[in-house]
């Protein structure tokens, strides 16, 4: 049994410059094509990856199923990232840094450099974080000085929220870093992780508000104080600034074109949910002053349901990307149709292990295995499969062919 691999990439996506010996230009849609046991570890020059070369018994193949340790010659592997690492060395610390403290310092300096040259949304998020940190610090100081436990608790809640917003900002800056040997796809998925973390925090906040409403219903008394209402009004004003900053993302079912859109949407939902929470506390206090019974239970219950419904679509989408669900933009019927077209070819016996997922929103990756008839030239088949899935919207496609 022989095995071959065919990897394709969209011409609009990021590509590495392959050596001239390979015969592939940057505009070639066949990103990489190689046969296991095609490259020899002898002194002969590497062959064209498109050609079919049989390995004889006297030479040791580069990639063999029976070899436990694979020795990759540096001239074949290392050229991908040499220029990339040289270009990145001025702004990002290397993984072999001698001191962890210096690495953290370099990372912070790099983040500030990215922020200075970043877009308006990143600068707005930094402004919002600064406002929240200043407000939570002042609230914590007043709470400790006056002995108000409610103010101290609210200050810790805001501090935790500031930490999540800071993580979102960190993801925005780190996602600009180019791929390296460890993260070969880059750091774009870090923004998906930040959006998922924000959504998870907001779901927990919705649950805690529901528990607070249940507690108020059981105790049949209000815990609202005058100073808590003043705190809620001030917090609402700060969060409304954030809602204004990210108003373009203030929708529930937002279509995510990139991972950056998903991260910005999570930030907008974060400040929007905090605004709803503060508004619910203010409304409950006003209704209680009018003598409405169980006003606090009603308002907190509505806030809990509103936050839950607001955040759940984002939570499902981010969890789907991280769990590598089938891409929602590509209909399952279209994938099944492509699979039937490939199986219908005379030279193909079977198609198995067809897997498709989103690396980040807008970037679909796929892989499948073709069982071909013995002695069949697989180049036309591979080109057909690549064109078929490329037209469907799959940017990166890996096809492995086996012969019986």
Question: Can you give a write-up of this model?
Answer:
With 404 residues, this protein is of the alpha+beta class. Helices cover 54% and strands 10% of the residues. It contains 11 helices and 5 strands; from the N terminus they run ββααααααααααββαβ. The protein has helices at 74-77, 79-88, 100-116, 120-146, 149-174, 189-219, 226-245, 259-289, 295-322, 332-343, 379-392, and strands spanning 3-9, 32-35, 348-360, 363-372, 396-403. The chain has a 5-stranded mixed beta sheet, with helices on one face. α4 packs antiparallel against α5 (149-174), α4 runs antiparallel to α7 (226-245) and α10 (332-343) packs antiparallel against α11 (379-392).
SSE map:
Blueprint: E1 3-9, E2 32-35, H1 74-77, H2 79-88, H3 100-116, H4 120-146, H5 149-174, H6 189-219, H7 226-245, H8 259-289, H9 295-322, H10 332-343, E3 348-360, E4 363-372, H11 379-392, E5 396-403
Parallel strand pairs: 4-5
Antiparallel strand pairs: 1-2, 1-5, 3-4
Feature tags:
single chain, 404 residues, alpha+beta, five-stranded mixed β-sheet
SSE order: EEHHHHHHHHHHEEHE
Major beta sheet summary: 5 strands, mixed
**Gap from first CA to last CA:** 6 Å
Structural class: alpha+beta
Mean pLDDT: 76
| Strand content range | 5-15%
Name the overall outline. Answer: elongated
User: Roughly how many Å is the radius of gyration?
Assistant: 28 Å
| Contiguous helical run count | 11
Number of separate strands: 5
Give the neighbour order of strands across the main sheet. 2-1-5-4-3
Helix content: 40-55%
| Uncertain regions spanning at least 5 consecutive residues | 1-97
């Amino acid at each position: 049994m022989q095995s071959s691999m065919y990897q394709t990439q969209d011409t609009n996506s990021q590509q590495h410059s392959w050596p001239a010996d390979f015969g592939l230009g940057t505009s070639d849609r066949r990103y990489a094509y190689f046969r296991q046991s095609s490259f020899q570890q002898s002194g002969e020059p590497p062959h064209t990856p498109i050609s079919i070369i049989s390995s004889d018994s006297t030479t040791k193949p580069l990639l063999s199923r029976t070899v436990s340790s694979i020795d990759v010659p540096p001239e074949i592997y290392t050229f991908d990232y040499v220029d990339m690492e040289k270009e990145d060395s001025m702004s990002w610390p290397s993984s072999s840094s001698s001191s962890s403290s210096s690495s953290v310092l370099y990372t912070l300096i790099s983040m500030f450099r990215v922020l200075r040259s970043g877009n308006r949304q990143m600068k707005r998020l930094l402004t919002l974080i600064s406002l929240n940190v200043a407000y939570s610090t002042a609230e914590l100081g007043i709470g400790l000085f006056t002995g108000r436990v409610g103010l101290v608790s609210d200050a810790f809640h805001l501090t935790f929220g500031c930490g999540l917003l800071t993580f979102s900002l960190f993801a925005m800056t780190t996602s600009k870093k180019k791929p390296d040997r460890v993260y070969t796809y880059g750091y774009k998925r870090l923004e998906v992780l930040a959006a998922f973390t924000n959504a998870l925090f907001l779901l927990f906040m919705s649950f805690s508000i529901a528990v607070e409403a249940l507690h108020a219903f059981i105790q049949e008394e209000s815990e609202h104080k005058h100073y808590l209402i003043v705190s809620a009004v001030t917090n609402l004003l700060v969060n409304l600034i954030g809602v204004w900053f990210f108003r373009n993302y203030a929708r529930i079912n937002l279509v995510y074109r990139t991972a950056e859109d998903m991260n910005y949407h999570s930030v907008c939902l974060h400040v929007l949910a905090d605004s709803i929470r503060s508004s619910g506390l203010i409304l409950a206090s006003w209704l209680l002053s009018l003598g409405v019974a169980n006003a606090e239970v009603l308002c907190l219950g509505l806030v809990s349901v509103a936050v839950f419904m607001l955040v759940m679509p984002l939570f499902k989408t981010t969890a789907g990307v991280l769990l590598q669900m089938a891409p929602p933009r590509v209909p399952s019927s279209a994938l099944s149709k492509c699979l039937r077209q490939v199986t219908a070819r005379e030279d193909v016996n079977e198609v198995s292990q067809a897997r498709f997922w989103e690396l980040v929103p807008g970037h679909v990756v796929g892989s499948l295995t073709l069982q071909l008839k013995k002695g069949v030239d697989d180049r036309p088949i591979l080109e057909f499969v690549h064109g078929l899935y490329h037209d469907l919207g799959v940017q990166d496609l890996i096809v492995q062919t086996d012969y019986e």
